Amino acid sequence: MTDDTWAPFPDADAARLRRDVEFLAAGPRGRRRAPGAMERAEEYVRARLAGAGWQVERQPFDLRWRIGATDRHGHRALVWKPRLHRRLRGANLIAVLPGAPAGPTALVGAHLDTVDGSPGADDNASGVAVLLETARLLAALPAPPPVALAVFDMEELGLIGARHAARVLSRDGLGGTGGRRDIAGMICLESVGYFDDAPGSQRLPAGFATAFPGTAAATRADGHRGDFTLVVHRRSSAAAAAHWQRAAAATPAGLRGLLLRDPRPDGPAGLLIGLAVPPANHLGRSDHAPFWNRRIPALMLTDTANFRNPHYHRPTDVPATLDYARLAAVTAATAATATAWPHNRF
């Protein structure tokens, strides 16, 4: 594979990304605290996907007694906000292109909900906007690629929608005609739109430099600037992470992707190890983690959320704070990696 094929999607549209973020981030959205706004956001996403030619299935769930998190606003990370939920009713959206081949399929996912009190432009209208623009780019290809899309519910309540989707998809695969489609790999878009080129704008979690000295050294060498996308991966997804990094660098924005390998194995053992190594818990704070736990290779793309963005989980997380040129680069690299992953064309 040559360099010019790493980013074959030069038409990612920054203006369209901004319009999507502005609609989605009109206010907080969630099933419990802002159900009307959540329904409008869901319908917007469904209509945009269907308008691009995708077949969209709404997959409702009704779950009882689930350990998760509170969705109250604030800077504390999800792992420090535990809560037992008595009953949760929500829905994920799963989309495929008609005519896409059976067999190994890449899944691109992002969560739609926000915490209470925050319009969530970065967390996570940015991720959903990238998913929608990725959908448009993939639908324009001459042949439908083996890629599916997932818009998750209730991430802020403890990855509830993604946990449900990972369980169902690992058991049943994706529906549709022409045969079974198993998930070859998953790309999670989690708070991907905030960048800051100022020295010192990028912070690291406590204990991070000891646990991940290579990534910490790379951040320090760049003056702790928040000018990169962090690509969190495991051994099973290392090739996909490197592919994404090369594709991002080849975009007009020349986006830097900083790789961070989670040393834990896929499966339940990785989850248990995280309990003994607190810095590792930060690497599983979004919707990719349930797929790891089901032994499905996955990446998390992120601007590092509260370790960079001062508006994280606050009313000031608004569309004007995001960098849409770099968001277009995230889109192009994501589309390139998703189309390559099912057949390991890395």
Core attributes:
single chain; 346 residues; alpha/beta; Aminopeptidase; 8-stranded mixed beta sheet; 11 helices; 35% helix; globular; disordered N terminus; M28 family peptidase; M28_fam; Peptidase_M28
In short:
This protein has helices spanning 14-24, 35-51, 121-139, 160-172, 208-211, 213-221, 238-249, 268-276, 278-281, 289-293, 324-340, and strands spanning 55-69, 82-96, 105-111, 147-152, 183-190, 228-233, 256-261, 298-302.
Explain the overall architecture.
Pfam families: Peptidase_M28. With 346 residues, this protein is α/β, with parallel strands linked by helices. It has a single domain (3-343), classed as Zn peptidases (Aminopeptidase, 3-Layer(aba) Sandwich). It is built from 11 helices and 8 strands. The protein has helices at residues 14-24, 35-51, 121-139, 160-172, 208-211, 213-221, 238-249, 268-276, 278-281, 289-293, 324-340, and strands at residues 55-69, 82-96, 105-111, 147-152, 183-190, 228-233, 256-261, 298-302. An 8-stranded mixed sheet has the order 1-2-4-3-5-8-6-7, with helices on both faces. Helix 7 packs across helix 11. The chain is globular, with a radius of gyration of 18 Å. It starts with 13 loop residues before the first helix and ends in a 6-residue tail after the last helix.
